[in-house]
């Protein structure tokens, strides 16, 4: 079942074409990796998919309905977005920042209830930041902040999670934890996850599907083994990347 769909997205910035007819369908129960070189337009596309930037042309639907820009409360309950920038501007505690993920579920005159508190607690445990709950979020390290912001997105309990470089700035243990968490979210709970990744090993290991963005267009969309082949990788990255295997797992070595 398709949860989020982008159709023929066009975007120009400062007179330069960034996205040139991008279409993409995100299905329930899958982790989809979005890869492409720096400046390919991945974050711009993610912001459009999150309803935070209108495209010049084309549209996005969530559950078959047009996604408002900015998202309304009903859309915000179903769709969470982890931005590439891990900025936290206000000196709030970690628990408070994560609880912001529950706002779409609360009305203006409704205090948080057990379901909200449970969701916040579970999200902090899943993103391994429960031990930081009383820390002021602005004092955290980069990797700690990244996990807190991921927890905020998880607390929403979204049908669709858009995560821009979710494993960036994380140590190897937390990279594995976060990627397996995204997989559980998709395979266990039936959510759709779109993750921008630069790590091809992670894309091959954790993603059900990989979409390649290059030159403003979708250059490939399919299973990792089919998509991550030397010819395409050479074209998009301008460097030789050789696929191999260690212990039955795909690895990519840059020459
Ligand atoms: N507000 C803006 N005004 C002008 N150009 C912009 C603006 N925002 C982004 N761009 C340009 O659009 C292009 C796409 O940027 P975007 O951040 O979407 O790329 P990306 O694929 O996410 O890159 P990276 O892998 O480096 O994060 C870049 O060339 C960037 O310089």
Topology at a glance:
Elements: E1 2-13, E2 16-27, E3 31-35, H1 42-49, E4 57-62, E5 65-66, H2 73-78, E6 79-82, H3 94-99, H4 114-126, H5 142-155, E7 160-164, H6 172-189, E8 192-196, H7 200-206, E9 209-214, E10 217-222, H8 224-227, H9 230-237, E11 241-246, E12 249-254
Helix pairs in contact: 4-5
The structure holds adenosine-5'-triphosphate.
Residues 13-14, 18, 36, 38-44, 84 line the site of adenosine-5'-triphosphate.
Protein name: Iron complex transport system ATP-binding protein
Family: Belongs to the ABC transporter superfamily.
Organism: Nitrospirillum amazonense
Low-confidence stretches: none
Q: How many separate structural domains?
A: 1
Q: Please, what is the average pLDDT? A: 95
The secondary-structure element order is: EEEHEEHEHHHEHEHEEHHEE
> Which structural class do the helices and strands define?
alpha/beta
Bound molecules: adenosine-5'-triphosphate
What is the CATH architecture term? 3-Layer(aba) Sandwich
Per DSSP, what share of the residues sits in E-state strands of 2 or more residues? 25-35%
**What is the number of E strands?**
12
Corresponding CATH superfamily: P-loop containing nucleotide triphosphate hydrolases
**For the report, how would you describe the main beta sheet?**
6 strands, mixed
Q: What oligomeric state do these chains adopt?
A: single chain
Distance between the termini: 40 Å
Shape: globular
Number of helices: 9
Strands of the largest sheet, in order across it? 6-7-8-3-9-10
Helix content: 25-40%
Keywords: ATP-binding, Nucleotide-binding, Translocase, Transport
Function: Part of the ABC transporter complex HmuTUV involved in hemin import. Responsible for energy coupling to the transport system.
Family: Belongs to the ABC transporter superfamily.
Protein name: Iron complex transport system ATP-binding protein
